[in-house]
Structures are given as structure tokens and as C-alpha cells.
Amino acid sequence: MNDQIAKLKEWIDNSDNIVFFGGAGVSTESGIPDFRSVDGLYNQKYDYPPETILSHTFFMAQTEEFFRFYRDKMLCLDAEPNAAHRKLAEWERQGKLRAVITQNIDGLHQKAGSQNVLELHGSVHRNHCMRCHKPYDVQAVAQSTGVPHCACGGIIKPDVVLYEESLDTHTLDASLRYIQSADVLIIGGTSLAVYPAASLIHYYRGHKLVLVNKSETPADAKADLVIHGPIGEIFSQL
Ligand code: CNA
């Protein structure tokens, strides 16, 4: 492990075109649970798996149950960035990192100081009325009960990309461009199981593809460097 971390450090020290692509595993050390390494957690309290509850069909059909789950599991407003978020923000400030591309919706990269964050799946911090499109902050959802409503009577919907919904094309295109031209691409804390986000890594053309994950991923065989472990702990050594 130490050799691998030393190798990664060498690549980072010598690059000014690092791109990071991450997922829920980046925030577990901040106390936010991911989906796939906590099997069965949601089933203790909910009748459906998270992918079902967080789908467009479920949102439309069982809106109140959606918000019960969403407030309980997806709104972790007291969470603080960990060493991984902070290191990425530091590399950006130093002119080494071009972009953070994330599947997370928790806003922790921005809280750590990152400026160029591409949120493929949106953010809990942005919400809008489905009828009049008035924007709302996260507190409007967090402090409401049942289904949150706008003054106009419309439902307030979080700007998160639910299963069955399409990704924002501008965010997707920009992410592709960063990955295509990256020197070092670090992929961290993602099971690479959710598409189309997971397919982004196929656009990388360089020779420094790094995977930092607690468990194996489908891309391990393709990577130039694989480090299995907790990303915050690993990044704090860089
Ligand atoms: P996932 O499918 O739950 O996979 C997480 C991966 O991270 C797994 O392979 C874990 O082994 C790994 N992992 C967990 N903790 C660590 C750690 N400390 N260090 C390194 N690796 C770790 O999550 P993905 O992001 O791949 O799946 C995509 C979904 C989950 C996206 O749509 C997210 O929006 C959604 N999600 C987001 C959050 C959040 O915003 N924090 C939380 C839960 C789920």
C-alpha cells in the first residue's frame, strides 16, 4: 500500500491536469452512508430499496414516502468535509486539479472549498417548485413536513437526478471534456454501477488512471494504479 501511495504522490506532484471522478464513498468518512456498502440498512425502515424510492415513478406516485426517506437519508446537513474533500480543494487552489466530477448530491466538495464541481446527479441544496419554478434552498425541504409545497401550491422538488431521469447534458459534456483531456484521472469512492455516469471513465485517454476504493470495482483491471482503502485516510497521506 505504501508503494502505491508513493506512486500516486509522485504523479500528483508532477501534474497540473488532475481530474477527480467520485461517488458516495467519498463522503462515508463524513458520516454519510453510501448505497452499496451498507446492505440492508434501508430495509430496516423502508419497504423498498433506495433505487426504487429515488426513482421518478416513485416520486410521482408516492411523494410523501419519497420525502420521508429523502429527509431521513439524503439530507445530512450537519456533515463536514473529510480529508479527501479537503485535499481535492487544496489541489485546485494550487492549480493542479482542473475539476471534481461527482455523483454525490451532498455539496461537501463546495463546503471544503472546491470551485469547479460538476454535479452529475444534482444537489440537495437546489430545489424548485414544479409549477412556477421558484427556487428554494435546502431548508425549505428540511424544515417542511410531508410533501413540501410552494406558495403557489406546486410541489417543491429537489434538483437531484432521480433514477429514470436524464442527466443534465451541459454537465455531462463538460465532464467528458475534462476526462478526455486529463493527465491523471483519479476515480474514488464509487462502485461504478450507476450509468451513464460510470461510462464516463471510458473517455480517458491517458496512462495514469487511478482507482481508490474500499472494495473492488469493474474498472480495477483497466486502471494503472489501484489502491484499496478508505479514501480520506489515503488522501491525507498525499
Ligand atoms: P455506491 O454504489 O454506494 O458505491 C460506493 C462505493 O464506495 C463502494 O464501492 C464502496 O466500497 C466505496 N466506499 C465506501 N466508503 C469508502 C471510503 N471511505 N473510501 C473509499 N471507498 C469507499 O455509490 P456510487 O456513488 O457509486 O453510486 C452512485 C449513486 C449513489 C449516486 O447516484 C449518488 O447520488 C448516490 N449517493 C450519494 C450520496 C452522497 O451524496 N453522499 C450518498 C448515498 C448515495
Brief summary of the model shown:
The chain is α/β, with parallel strands linked by helices. The chain is built from 9 helices and 9 strands. Carba-nicotinamide-adenine-dinucleotide binds next to loops.
List keywords for this structure.
single chain; 18% strand; alpha/beta; 238 residues; three-stranded antiparallel β-sheet
Q: How would you explain this protein's 3D organization?
A:
The chain is an alpha/beta fold and 238 residues long. It has nine helices and nine strands. The chain has a six-stranded parallel β-sheet, sandwiched between helices. A three-stranded antiparallel β-sheet has the order 5-4-6. It is elongated, with a radius of gyration of 18 Å. The mean pLDDT is 93. Carba-nicotinamide-adenine-dinucleotide (CNA) binds next to loops.
Write the layout of secondary structure elements.
Layout: H1 2-13, E1 18-22, H2 50-53, H3 56-61, H4 63-74, H5 83-93, E2 97-102, H6 108-111, E3 117-119, E4 122-129, E5 135-136, H7 138-142, E6 156-160, H8 169-181, E7 184-188, E8 208-213, E9 225-228, H9 231-235
Parallel strand pairs: 1-2, 1-7, 2-3, 7-8, 8-9
Antiparallel strand pairs: 4-5, 4-6
The protein binds carba-nicotinamide-adenine-dinucleotide (CNA).
